[in-house]
Amino acid sequence: MGYTPEQKPFYERVCQKKCFFSDSAGAKTWCGDALALVAGLLGPLAFSPYNFYPLAVILPALLFVVCRNLSARRAFWRGWLFGLGWFGAGVSWVYFAIHDFGYASVPLALGLTTSFVAFLSLFPAILSGSVALLFPQENSRKYLLVWPAAWVMIEWFRGWFLTGFPWLNLGYSQIESPLRGLAPIVGAYGVSLAVAFSAGLIVVAWRWAQRTRLIALGSLGILWASALLLSLVSWTTPVGKPLQVSLIQGNIPQAIKWQPEQIEATLERYWQLTAKHWESDLIVWPESALTVFYHQVANGYLAALAAEARVHGTDLLIGLPVFHQETGKYYNGMLSLGSQQGFYYKRHLVPFGEYIPFEEYLRGLIRFFDLPMSSFSAGPEGQPLLQAAGYPVAASICYEDAFGEEVITALPEANLLVNATNNAWYRDSLASHQHLQISRMRALETGRDLARATTNGISAIIDAQGALLATTSQFQTAVLTGSVQPRAGATPYVLWGNKFILGLCLCLFAIGSYYPRSKGS
Length: 521
Known about the structure:
The protein is of the alpha/beta class.
């Protein structure tokens, strides 16, 4: 196995006591099941707003341990329980969108939320079951190569399958930890690999003999110290002088936002908030700040706003819906006004929120499938970059910034990141904090400052190291003003994206599979 002859009696005594770690014949498995579930429930504490990032290492290590010496079926079950806790505690805020704004009854909203969480739980279940099936023998390579590589590949698949949902990936939890130094090189998935590898090192240090234990702990220290040193590296360089940016947080309640009688008040609020900050180089409005189509206000409201902006030498980026009369398509867009006018159309749409999959079958079935503005079309690939305050901007709308491989398509040309978001669907839940943490990772990966304007918080100015320079409170009308520094150059992650880390994971998995499994080293 992995212990010395002197240690063998000890481990045999442990197994005879039917400890839940052993799962030997006749052992009580409910303890291991409970531990898997509790470990998952504690998972969200590793992420914002709690940021207890060591838990992101400890909890996967517990999953590795409770899946030892199990059949594939039992490991699948424990992985599912782990996922049930992880996603049940971490993303059940989707309930508010379904119930409050999808007008679903409480039982229906609970049922849909439970189904969503149960589906996401299949990913750690498949991970655990596959490792148990393909690697039943115990050896250090299983924990140092197979588990970490498989974990990241499953995360990547979850971030791609059915348009993807990369929430609560391990890497995002490390935005405040030394491992953050790896993000500009290997991205969020690379940080996830480092976290899972750290978990494997902990298991090896606990399970194996003294010499191996020392090597594992030493490797853990070297990994984290190296990442800390890398966090001191500046991968990009400043271009020009810092820009003064103002982020308008209109705080129009989601419940009344789209009501026709609210339109005039919304237009007036954003105009008045903007008029107080014409001294800024760039003013950003959030996603769908205007609840009218572009063509309805182009020649009046927006024309006057653009003229005023040119007088003051200010550029604006405005979130609003756009209707193309010639094609009959609707887009969730961002408009640049001032020195130049241009559009960016959201490419990565939210299923059920912005479009209905299998629309011919689901539309009209229940009110949740008829959410307002749920008939958008995806914007085309290769859209020209918006120009604002004299610089090309990498624009993203709402949860588009959860997909690092899509953000970097605008780089290294873009000198600044801008994200316009509406998280008002989820009340005062974990959603806004988790999303802000994801946004910070995008800034860190790309070595770019990021201006993030939201409808009701949390708006933020983030520097190229992923640090928060300024934020707003939630559910308050506010204008956040600060400086952003345009930057040039490319981090390694911008150059090779996720291809490198996925290739590395495949290699690690292959190496872990290659050696004879009968060996215990």
